[in-house]
Amino acid sequence: MTRPTPETLANSARRARAATEPASDVDHTSTTRGAAVQAAVATPEPAVLSGAGSLVRSLEALGVDVVFGIPGGAILPAYDPLYDSTVRHILVRHEQGAGHAATGYAQATGRVGVCIATSGPGATNLVTPIADAYMDSVPIVAITGQVARPAIGTDAFQEADIQGITLPITKHNFLVQTPEEIPQVLAEAFHLAASGRPGPVLVDIPKDVLQAQTSFTWPPTLDLPGYRPTLHPHGKQIREAARLMSNARRPVLYVGGGVLKAGATEGLRKLAELTGIPVVTTLMALGAFPDSHPQHLGMPGMHGTVAAVYGLQKADLIVALGARFDDRVTGKLDSFAPDATVVHADIDPAEIGKNRHADVPIVGDARHVIDELIAAVTVERAADRVVDHADWWAQLDDLRKRYALGYEEPADGTLSPQYVIKRLGEIAGPDTIFVAGVGQHQMWASQFISYEKPYTWLNSGGAGTMGYAVPAAMGAKVGKPDTVVWGVDGDGCFQMTNQELATCALEGIPIKIALINNGNLGMVRQWQTLFYGERYSNTELGTHKHRIPDFVKLAEALGCVGLRCENAEDVDATIEAAMAINDAPVVVDFVVGKDAMVWPMVPAGTSNDEIMFARGVRPAFDEDDV
Fold it and tell me: Is 556 part of the annotated catalytic residue set?
């Protein structure tokens, strides 16, 4: 284990404290999860302002406490009134970092995250985090500068049609035409982002609109004709779902991220315990139901537990709550759960029946759906309409026992990544927020850390965005400054956005990064091992053989504390050393073996019936048991 010199530690700590002091009076309190606007503030007085001033006053009126961004020519007018604002601006090193930070902030707090960029390449650098937020239904508002109105469409310097570019990956987007409409557009953008099915909204503002004078008044009137999300489900559908749940012999509650978005985790637990039905939680829903709960089968899907995968596959009733039957869960769709009747509840009617036919479609907010299901099931049980699930549980418990998650220690004596992540979860504890990148380390973090509380697991699920972890962890820490935030990243992902550690060091955002350094693009290498005859084309990164970069030195160069651990005996001490440093960001380079794989695994494009427990090992599953 290599530690920096005392001078380095002291300098990092001083920088962190100095950077924090100017912003010490910023209010980081959050509002009720899922609220349409941010924390309530005093209604601002009418005033004559520039469009830029109106923009900043609107953000203040919406209760925004922090934005992540980078100035540039077209958006520069907005940065002048921002200089005097109560809104904290965090200067990131890349616009992608601003977008992921806004996402991490939103996922950790339930509030709308905000990012700002200039026109052209500044705006297009936000495309990836906007697409990421869209896939995972995260409420963010992206504000971009645009060239002046007379120049739009002329291929002017730094012009890009960001409204057109982001049309397929935003819940809605706006091109502001006049300074007078700025307050209304901002209020509508925040309402759209946070209400119904959350998602990203883009507001593009031409430079001359920001510079023009206008009369600012608040609050504006929202004008969103046709936008009426259905929150309360239809009573008939609820009663039919309750009837099916009371009669099914092999039911499963299939829980998706929508339950977290709706703040419905307490209701979910009540429903599960009332019915005794097994629960599976998707990658986006980890923490919605305690991992340690006896009814929890684990995560379903490509790298899910055998019990969760087979539970869904052999169910006679699937009750999907805020889930979308993603391909990583279903495997080959036409062979997924062939004997199951499906109850599908989602706030977005477009999801229902999109991938799997719903026998009982329920449109509504997951919290209201679950609360009304509890009431309807209670009526069923009062009438003694209850089925004994003992046989079903006996089968599932047998699978859980025979095919529990585990791993083999590397034969070459290298450090096991699974062991590192398992100990990280145990030492850091259940109140920690874990933010994962994408790849093997993401799957191991989902498998070997126990998530007992909601909103403690953040990751890029739908888009699978490499480079998500560092800036998202930064955003989460800004939103939850009193909570320990660990980013679990891979050496490939880390090299895409690690420059945001400089932002963390200068802004006093002491995140911790567990870098699972296997010297390769690990998940790609795993597929090459299994499906491409061990032909390792362009997956070795050189971080082992050449130690390029040296992650400890890189961390120190970015103003962080850098540590390294290369053997199992030092894992606990290294994690505890990182946990003890709270006034500067910490990066721990865990040098692990390159041959570890993620198991279980359902190969892409195959049926869930083809699940592999380990390489060359198919679960022994007696068809007569189901």
Answer: no
* Identified catalytic residue from 158, 163, 295, 495: 158
Q: Exposed (0-12), middle (13-18) or buried (19+): which is 282, by Cβ within 10 Å? A: buried
Q: Are 541 and 591 in contact (CB under 8 A)?
A: no
298: left (phi over 0), alpha (psi -120 to 50) or beta: left
Measured in degrees and rounded to the nearest 5, phi and psi for residue 104 equal -60, -40
Catalytic annotation present for 207:
yes
φ/ψ (deg, to 5) at 135 = -65, -35
Structure-token pair, residue 358: 């719903």
- Asked if 236 is an active-site residue, the reply is no
Q: How high is the pLDDT of residue 32?
A: 39
Write the CB contacts of 42 (distance below 8 Å, at least 6 apart in sequence).
Answer: none
Out of 38, 159, 181, 207, the active site residue is 207
Residue 313 host element (H or E)? helix 306-313
**Token pair belonging to 427:** 């030492």
State how far the Cα of 498 lies from the Cα of 502, in Å rounded to an integer: 8
- Please name which of 162, 154, 241, 261 lies closest in space to residue 205, comparing C-alpha atoms: 162
Q: What is the DSSP letter of 233?
A: P
Tokens of 133: 């937020």
d(CA 435, CA 443): 12
User: pTM for the full model?
Assistant: 0.92
Contacts of 573 (CB under 8 A, 6+ apart): 1
Helix 95-109 to helix 500-507 angle (10° resolution) is 60
Q: How far apart (Å, rounded) are the C-alpha atoms in residues 619 and 601?
A: 11
Cα distance between residue 261 and residue 195, in whole Å: 10
Q: Residue for token digits 């505890």?
A: 576
Return all residues near 100 (Cβ < 8 A) that are at least 6 apart: 129, 132, 465, 467, 468, 471, 472, 475, 497
pLDDT digits (tens, 9 = 90+) for 171-195: 999 999 999 999 999 999 999 999 9
What's the CA gap between 158 and 72, in Å, rounded? 10
pLDDT of residue 44: 83
- At 92-114, the pLDDT tens digits run 999 999 999 999 999 999 999 99
Alpha carbon 166 to chain centroid distance?
20
Q: Where are the beta strands (DSSP E) in 271-402?
A: 279-281, 296-298, 317-321, 341-346, 360-363
Taking a C-beta distance cutoff of 8 angstroms, is the pair 483, 457 a contact? no
Reported residue count of the chain is: 626
Q: For residue 371, which of 219, 195, 238 has the smallest C-alpha distance?
A: 238
| Both tokens assigned to 156 | 């002017």
- Hey, what are 65's tokens? 């406490």
Contact 542, 519 (CB under 8 A): yes
Structure-token pair, residue 86? 């109560």
Please answer whether residues 206 and 158 qualify as being in contact, where contact means their C-beta atoms are separated by less than 8 angstroms: no
Helix (H) or strand (E) holding 396, with range, is helix 390-402
- Residue 318 pairs in a beta bridge with 252, 342
Residue pair 352/358 in contact (Cβ under 8 Å)? The answer is yes
Q: Which of 38, 60, 68, 95 is catalytic?
A: 95
Which of these is catalytic: 443, 466, 523, 601?
A: 523
What pLDDT was estimated at residue 41?
59
Strand 251-255 vs strand 279-281: parallel, antiparallel, or unpaired? parallel
How much is the pLDDT for 621?
65
**Could you please report the per-residue DSSP string of 556-622?**
HHTTSEEEEE-SGGGHHHHHHHHHT--SS-EEEEEEB-S-----SB--TTSBGGG-BSBTTB-----
* pLDDT < 50 stretches in the chain: 1-37, 39-40, 624-626
